[in-house]
Amino acid sequence: MFQISNQSQFPETLSYKLKAVCLQRSITGLMLLLCLTASSQSSKTLPSTSPSTDAFLLANQKALGNNLVALAYKNGKIVYRKELEKEIGDFNGRTQAPAGIASQWLTAAAVMAYVDAGKISLDDKVSKYIPIFAKYMKSYITLRNCLTFTTGIQADPPGALKLLQKSKYPDLETEVDAFASKREIQTNPGTEIYFSQIGPDIAARVLEVVTKKSFDRIVQEKILRPCKMRGTSFTNENGGAINASDGAVTTPNDFISFLGMLLNKGSFEGKQVLSEKAIQEMETLQFPSLPVKFVPKEATGYKTGLGCWVSADGREITSLNGSGLWPFIDRCRNYAGIIVPKGAVSEPKPGLYAQFKENLDASFGEPCK
């Protein structure tokens, strides 16, 4: 039998033991919290890999969009990262932002995946896949013309009118058929450069015909998934036609992965996404001697590649972008960089982006001969 005196002592002993265990766990938890806090504080006070770039971005934060991410990639890894936020949590490397005209770089890469596979050729006539182009006297337009602003088709209207024009089409098929039947040919294909967002949409529709898949799925399969770009998409959330010219959304982390793939001659994490030959073709000056009728002011002084702009000496490849997203590859110094604002910048200043690159050049680029 248990004695009454033992019953009265047991709860007291248990109470002491529970208090001791709770105190021990509280101390352990407090120590872990202090360690995490110290770790967090130390990570914020680590020396920058490019103090001059930090200082430049801070001095020009407002002009660059207030909330922005700047990254540089070299030798298979990110060598510079700066996230500037107006308020904590506003924007970081995993946040989606409009890709703007840089969407065309992704579109061109998708086209080159099918050139690699032998399914299409850049010099194929669009009418081979979309016969309505031959019916309306546009049979000489090639896929190369579509990716270099040389289709000769009347350009989209500017500003809000352009958005209104695109919103009325339910899909790429309807939109591209309208390009063939309702847009005038203003000049013969391949005779002058006139910046327009028509060509990439036509190229995207050709891929749909060849694969019998939607363009957003094509890009996912051939470019985005292989490059682990999980936050990038061409899907039109509002319905209507996919916009292969400037309709993608992306994240800073995603797009630097894409640039890294291009920089590494088509390879990403040991997998060949595009052939080295495809990358070379994308970065080759296309129609360099043609007269330039119109290009955005940001592209002044550059030549056309496939879905991108290339410096006259071929050393810098970029997608100069009125939305504020500014990616580039420096082939001479062998690195890539990008600035991504949270939203469109009202008036991008090309001079600021040039200064951003100059700071990165000094930090990560070997002397360029």
Care to describe what's here?
The protein is an alpha+beta fold and 369 residues long. It has a single domain (58-364), classed as 3-Layer(aba) Sandwich (Beta-lactamase). The chain is built from twelve helices and 13 strands. The strands form four sheets. A seven-stranded antiparallel sheet has the order 2-1-13-12-11-10-9, sandwiched between helices. A two-stranded antiparallel sheet has the order 3-5. Strands 4-8 form a two-stranded parallel ribbon. Strand 1 and strand 2 (77-84) form a beta hairpin. Helix 2 runs antiparallel to helix 12 (350-364) and helix 3 crosses helix 9. The termini are far apart. Mean pLDDT is 85; it is low at 1-23 and 25-46.
Question: Could you estimate the helical fraction of the residues in percent?
Answer: 40-55%
Question: What string gives the helices and strands in order?
Answer: HHEEEHHHHHEHHEHEEHEEEEEEH
**DSSP helical segment count:** 12
The fraction of residues assigned to DSSP E strands is 5-15%
Q: Supply Rg.
A: 27 Å
- In one word, what is the shape? globular
Summarize the structure.
This protein has 369 residues and is an alpha+beta fold. The protein has helices at 4-44, 51-59, 103-116, 132-135, 143-146, 159-167, 172-182, 198-211, 215-224, 252-263, 276-282, 350-364, and strands spanning 68-74, 77-84, 97-98, 193-194, 249-250, 267-268, 271-272, 292-294, 302-304, 309-311, 316-318, 326-330, 335-341. It has a 7-stranded antiparallel sheet with strand order 2-1-13-12-11-10-9, with helices on both faces. A two-stranded antiparallel ribbon has the order 3-5. A two-stranded parallel sheet has the order 4-8.
